[in-house]
Amino acid sequence: xxxxxxxxxxxxxxxxxxxxxxxxxxxxxxxxxxxxxxxxxxxxxxxxxxxxxxxxxxxxxxxxxxxxxxxxxxxxxxxxxxxxxxxxxxxxxxxxxxxxxxxxxxxxxxxxxxxxxxxxxxxxxxxxxxxxxxxxxxxxxxxxxxxxxxxxxxxxxxxxxxxxxxxxxxxxxxxxxxxxxxxxxxxxxxxxxxxxxxxxxxxxxxxxxxxxxxxxxxxxxxxxxxxxxxxxxxxxxxxxxxxxxxxxxxxxxxxxxxxxxxxxxxxxxxxxxxxxxxxxxxxxxx
Length: 286
Description:
Helices cover 64% and strands 9% of the residues. The chain is flat. By secondary structure, the chain is of the alpha+beta class.
């Protein structure tokens, strides 16, 4: 992994070199290069560390924090942060898909045509629009703005605000406290999403925070969806079916007269027959 920094002047070069020499004396796994320009005062510090794991990314990220905080260079390349971005992207993608599924199902359960109209085509909306649709009550905002004009005392204003009823589309769909983390931390989810989708340079600590939050909300959404949308008892387990077919084809491809694997073949074939009958709505007795 590599990190490269651009320095526009020579002002800090001696201090940077002094620090790098000291650091390298106790971290021989790091390799450093000072790259000079021919016709300008700018120069580049390049740091290399062998490996492509999270441990490698963390080590490089820890050094990056020191360099940035101590010398404020321009970052040209940060492969540690790129590693974090790539690891987080699937979690953010999964969250957006889970959220759409969850909202569509919950809105349908409300039997409210107006609500269904508001949340239609969520995949075409950005996070700002989704925030407004799910968590903003326009009537509450209007009354709150009017109150600000008539209340001078902070305490009076807070008391008055607490008396205004607030009804968001999210509260219409979600009546329990099981998914409070999505609502209460949605702005943070949006901020973290922005870091990942726009490839911002993030350190190891922020990477862990983003990872933990998205894993948590994804798990909550997934559990709620699974408990709401239940497959019928005779539904085929597609993973088991695929494995059974794989076993059957493996047996056919490897069968010869000297192999005593008829029992394995029979078991796989019986499962396939059972799955096919369930698909056609037939009973096992047929």
